[in-house]
Q: What sequence folds into this?
């Protein structure tokens, strides 16, 4: 290729090219405009002179219509105009009068006659370096002849030829300065971008709290800097959460791992009875079960943060899911003889993933059962309200103190609770709700109970009413949670 692909060139080179082309086009247009305007003015001035001569001849022949006296009068009038040619031609294309004594070239005369024959209107033409005005003469709307007035423009053409050569030479001389100016302009334009790049390169994983300077937030580079700072904000929050998560996970796994190691070390110190080994294995199984629940909870949190969840969404009937949760609550609540009230409206459709929606309300129900006293009451209510599905999980348990209420959705936060659990249930419920474009709120009074309100946007389009029962594949997980809750109760 003769010309390189502009997309592969550095921005500095592309800016230099575009600036140079822009400057050169502007200069070229300015020179061309100057040339043609000046030339047009000169030709216009000549046309005015020719027109004045034509009008003067018209006055002469006003009362002497193409008579033989015209010749002498025209010669007398224009004898000082040595460069002008004046012809008076009759309708038979014969010369009646001529202002100059030199013989008229036959080729030039024929060209004039052809023009008169083709168009009998007043017009300006240029033939062989001579500018002519040809004006027809009419008597009572009858064509009787023509007046031809001409003047040489050879000297003018030569002058403009020199002017054109001069302008081209000046244009060529300006090429190098214009390219250098374009290069300088490109450097000046890219200077803020270079400074921004240098600041970005100075930011590492250990300096995520740093931010790039924004000189003008309204220009393009300012917009890039703003977007980069916003990205750093998100990365800093993400890294902070990741560090906290790793720290909390390590802390949570440390206890059961230490207990397992301690049980194994004790069992190896000396020979023990069958019952003692059985008790040690039972403790190890319980600790490994806690780690298993913790890891599954962490996987739910990881799923909620992978950014690809909506691709797995489908239309689901949340009423069916809540009915399943209600059945589980009835079974688990039997241990404490709890009253579980079903107030679920049917055919409430949302977009989401069935297992994750089920997980949200299973966590809320487990939490309600855990902190509700024996013979207490739990209500599950679902309604449609203002294009949203609203689900209420209400209990009359021990409630949450005002001090703990702002932190209950934090990971591993358990307040003053000493019961079983990882401290991730409510945090997972909140994250999964957020992923489904929902909202979770809580209201509680110490000693009176707690109400969780979860809302999701309803499916907009009309959906056929097909009742499909939801099957939750994680039967063993439900069984484990039910047994675990019975133990904690």
A:
């Amino acid at each position: 290729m003769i010309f390189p692909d502009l997309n592969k060139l550095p921005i500095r080179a592309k800016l230099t090219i575009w600036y140079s082309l822009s400057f050169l086009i502007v200069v070229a247009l300015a020179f061309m405009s100057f040339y043609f305007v000046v030339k047009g003015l000169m030709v216009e001035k000549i046309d005015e002179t020719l027109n004045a001569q034509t009008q003067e001849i018209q006055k002469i022949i006003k009362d002497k219509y193409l008579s033989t006296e015209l010749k002498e009068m025209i010669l007398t009038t224009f004898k000082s105009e040595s460069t002008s040619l004046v012809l008076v031609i009759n309708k038979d294309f014969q010369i009646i009068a001529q202002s100059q004594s030199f013989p008229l070239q036959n080729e030039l005369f024929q060209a004039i006659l052809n023009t008169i024959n083709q168009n009998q209107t007043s017009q300006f033409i240029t033939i062989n370096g001579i500018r002519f005005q040809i004006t027809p003469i009419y008597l009572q709307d009858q064509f009787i002849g023509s007046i031809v007035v001409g003047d040489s423009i050879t000297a003018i053409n030569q002058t403009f030829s020199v002017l054109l050569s001069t302008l081209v030479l000046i244009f060529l001389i300006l090429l190098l300065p214009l390219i250098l100016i374009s290069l300088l302009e490109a450097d000046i334009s890219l200077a803020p971008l270079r400074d921004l790049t240098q600041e970005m390169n100075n930011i590492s994983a250990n300096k995520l709290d740093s931010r790039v300077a924004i000189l003008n937030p309204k220009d393009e580079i300012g917009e890039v800097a703003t977007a980069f700072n916003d990205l750093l904000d998100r990365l800093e929050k993400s890294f902070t959460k990741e560090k906290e998560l790793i720290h909390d996970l390590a802390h949570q796994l440390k206890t059961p791992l230490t207990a397992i190691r301690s049980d194994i070390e004790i069992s190896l110190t000396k020979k023990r009875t069958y019952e003692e080994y059985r008790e040690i294995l039972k403790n190890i199984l319980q600790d490994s079960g806690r780690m298993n629940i913790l890891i599954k909870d962490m996987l739910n949190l990881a799923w909620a943060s992978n950014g690809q969840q909506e691709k797995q969404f489908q239309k689901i009937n949340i009423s069916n899911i809540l009915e399943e949760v209600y059945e589980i609550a009835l079974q688990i609540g039997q241990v404490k003889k709890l009253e579980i009230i079903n107030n679920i409206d049917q055919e409430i459709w949302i977009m989401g993933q069935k297992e994750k929606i089920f997980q949200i309300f299973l966590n809320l129900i487990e939490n309600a059962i855990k902190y509700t006293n024996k013979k207490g009451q739990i209500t599950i209510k679902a309604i449609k309200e203002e294009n949203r599905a609203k689900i209420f999980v209400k209990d009359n348990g021990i409630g949450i103190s005002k001090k703990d209420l702002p932190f209950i959705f934090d990971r591993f936060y358990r307040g003053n609770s000493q019961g079983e659990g990882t401290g991730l249930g409510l945090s997972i419920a909140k994250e999964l709700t957020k992923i489904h474009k929902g909202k979770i709120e809580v209201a509680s009074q110490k000693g009176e109970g707690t109400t969780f309100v979860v809302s999701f946007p309803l499916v907009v389009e009309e959906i056929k009413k097909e009742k499909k029962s939801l099957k939750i594949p994680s039967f063993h997980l439900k069984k484990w949670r039910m047994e675990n809750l019975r133990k904690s109760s």
Notes: The chain has three domains: 6-158, 220-303, 311-488. The mean pLDDT is 79.
